[in-house]
Write a structure and sequence with these properties.
heterodimer, A: mainly alpha, two-stranded antiparallel ribbon, 4 strands, 76% helix, globular, B: mainly alpha, ABC transporter involved in vitamin B12 uptake, BtuC, 14 helices, 4% strand
Chain lengths: 344, 346
């Protein structure tokens, strides 16, 4: 099970190849603009919040669930940070930043715990639950802000402009979070429980695994990660609104699926989100570079993402069933041989 | 473990009955809401408001019927809003290109055909490639919308073909309300007729039985000889066709064809269907429940402002209704399981 839970290797090879081909093609097409430090940094900065949201989807996929409320939580956290920052005043300095970021993270944790407790105790499918809580979080944010955009006083902008080892700080945050989540899911007991629960809810319960705790912890983590993504978005735009980033939910799901994490649970490697996010961002940059002058380019990229999602999923499914079939055929052949020997 | 109790105390019989039948529960919540709203603001019960309410149930209602069908088979369809807007806009653009002046029925046929085709694509991807329907329809949602806006156009048409525009004035009941003439839109009747036909088909035909059988246990249905793939495809095709019709009605009734409209409506539709008691894991749910879910969502969505709650808070109430609608029956089920001693404790 330990190896099988990682999923088909062919998928990762395919995805890696896609990233290399995309990078190669774009570098060949625009040798003076694409393979530059500046462009790389801007791409990393752009993808960071979305990639963190993809981790939320990834960990909930692993346990066989889904968290539809992540963008709502991210916006709720960003609005909280903006309002707390405003209340602390512009002169609060480091304390103000800590209070704003801390309250945003607490909001994310509370939202995630709510999701987790509802899903674990009601034992309803997470789609209707997180759909309901999504609506509640959007409702609260809309009610508090009256749907208007709230602005910060720029105190968070340090997060989005700072660089660490030539990489934007926000991207480093993503890498650290991804490494942390990958480590937990692959090396710890909790991670083992997550994979087991995703593989079969029933078996996990009959084996007396701590199902409730695993579910609550996973959704709580998803809530906190979403809040971090919200903080990053807020730091780069210095503004927060309930309707921001509305396409991010679909895109985060897209990255997780492209990264080979099984939406039915129990299979996948979280670190592949890095590859999925890289492919996504390069495709976006490529579209902007080649179609930038055309008014429909933003919509064309939506179209391409949709095609990519279905194509990658279909191809990976086809590859894994073909492998499965050849294995079955081998076994049958051996059985037949054995029978032939037996009867002779 | 306690001994299983088979008889509930007499006084709790009514509550139990309400909780056991989702439709009864919804009807009582709707009646309670209507009473509260009409006490808070008597104009809630005016013909003008009620007819307006009926009118705004139409497009969500049509899409909800389709989504319900797909959910009954154990799938999910997120792409309905994209199908609705694509069919509506493609139909309008085509009719305007030919400067079409004939009957509205051709527009209906065209929209239903386009919607059905897009639904067929969903169905084929889900059943033949065996991909999860949630992911496929999220993919086609962005794909259809992206293709429409990128390759067909982003222009908003305010002057529709004559017959389409005329449909917005299609009234069945006219009455006067404080000296003002108000009318119930005919599309409400069309929604009810379609819902009745669908309910009959689900309860009286083999096709309907198969739909429930597949949703309840696909493996068992397959072994019984149910043509699982084709039946699941019909659910997606009908969902697309109903969404196409919904989109056309939406454009005709608002007299505008906007390719960016109906954004995010899929979540409202899904919320209404789930609230209506349709299980997301398949096999359970009814047409009546779905329509009641749509009605409740519409009342909450459009009437909160009448009782003095700012519209900014309406999303919160919709969310709470969905959580209660899903949570209360689930809690009851858990309790029943515990009584029967079926639960595996942790």
């Amino acid at each position: 099970m330990i190896e099988a839970r990682l999923g088909p290797r062919a998928h990762i090879v395919l995805l890696g190849a896609l990233v290399v081909v995309l990078a190669g093609t774009l570098s060949a097409l625009a040798p003076s603009t694409f393979p530059t430090m500046r462009n790389m940094q801007s791409m990393m900065g752009q993808i960071a919040p979305l990639a963190i949201l993809a981790i939320c989807i990834g960990i909930t996929f692993l346990i066989g669930g889904i968290d539809l409320s992540i963008v709502a939580v991210a916006n709720c956290a960003a609005i909280t940070a903006a309002l707390v920052g405003e209340a602390m005043g512009p002169d609060a300095g480091a304390l103000g930043i800590m209070a704003a970021a801390g309250s945003a993270l607490v909001i994310g944790l509370l939202a995630g715990l709510t999701n987790g407790f509802l899903i674990a105790t009601l034992r309803v499918h997470p789609i209707p639950i997180t759909l309901g809580t999504m609506s509640v979080f959007i409702g609260i944010s809309t009610g508090i802000t009256n749907g208007a955009t709230v602005f910060g006083n720029g105190y968070m902008s340090g997060l989005s402009t700072a660089t660490v080892v030539l990489m934007p700080m926000t991207f480093v945050v993503f890498l650290v979070l991804l490494a942390l989540c990958t480590g937990i899911t692959l090396k710890t007991r909790t991670g083992f429980h997550m994979y087991a629960l995703g593989e079969s809810d029933k078996v996990a319960r009959y084996s007396r695994l701590p199902v409730t705790r695993t579910i609550v912890m996973t959704y709580a983590a998803s809530g906190v990660l979403a809040a971090i993504a919200g903080l990053i978005m807020f730091s780069s735009t210095n503004a927060a609104n309930v309707s921001f980033a509305s396409s991010y939910l679909m895109q985060a799901i897209l990255i997780a699926v492209v990264a080979g994490i099984d939406p039915y649970g129990g299979t996948g490697r979280l670190w592949a989100i890095l590859l999925g996010a890289a492919a996504m961002q390069m495709l976006q940059t490529g579209i902007n570079m080649s179609l930038g002058s055309w008014s429909g380019s933003a919509f064309a990229s939506n179209f391409i993402w949709g095609v990519l999602l279905i194509a990658v999923l279909g191809l990976s499914k086809w590859l894994s069933t073909r492998k499965h079939r050849t294995r079955e055929a081998e076994v049958e052949e051996k059985l037949e041989e054995a029978e032939a020997v037996g009867s002779a | 473990m306690t001994a299983p109790t088979t008889t509930a105390p007499a006084g709790r019989g009514f509550i139990e009955l309400l909780l056991a039948r989702r439709e009864l529960l919804l009807i009582s919540v709707i009646i309670a809401t209507v009473i509260i709203f009409s006490i808070a603001n008597p104009s809630f019960l005016s013909f003008a408001h009620l007819f307006g309410l009926g009118r705004s149930t139409v497009y969500v209602g049509l899409m909800a019927l389709g989504v319900m069908l797909v959910l009954l088979t154990g799938g999910i369809d997120i792409s309905v809003s994209a199908i609705a807007v694509s069919s509506m806009y493609l139909t309008t653009v085509t009719l305007m290109a030919f400067d079409y002046q004939g009957t509205f029925l051709l527009a209906v046929a065209l929209a239903v055909l386009i919607g059905g085709t897009l639904g067929l694509v969903n169905g084929v991807l889900v059943t033949w490639l065996k991909l999860p329907s949630l992911i496929v329809t999220i993919g086609t949602l962005t794909l259809y919308r992206g293709a429409l806006l990128a390759f067909v156009g982003t222009d908003r048409f305010r002057s529709l073909p004559a017959q389409m525009a005329e449909f917005s004035g299609f009234a069945v009941i006219r009455t006067s309300d404080n000296g003002r003439m108000v009318a119930l839109h005919g599309a409400v009747l069309i929604l009810i007729v379609l819902a009745a036909v669908l309910a009959l088909a689900l309860s009286r035909t083999w096709w309907g039985r198969y739909i429930y059988a597949i949703g309840d246990n696909q493996e068992a249905a397959e072994r019984m000889g149910v043509p699982v793939r084709s039946i699941r495809v019909t659910a997606f095709v009908l969902s697309g066709a109903l969404a196409g019709l919904a989109g056309l009605f939406y454009a005709a009734m608002s007299r505008t064809a906007d390719p960016a409209s109906l954004n995010g409506v899929e979540m409202t539709v899904l919320a209404a269907v789930v609230l209506g008691g349709v299980s997301v894991t398949g096999g359970r749910g009814s047409v009546l429940g779905t329509l009641l879910g749509v009605l409740l969502i519409t009342i909450v969505g459009s009437s909160l402002v009448l009782v003095g709650i700012p519209t900014a808070w309406q999303q919160l109430f919709i969310g709470l209704f969905v959580l209660f609608g899903v949570g209360v029956p689930a809690l009851r089920e858990r309790r029943n399981e515990r009584r029967r001693g079926m639960v595996v404790s942790e």
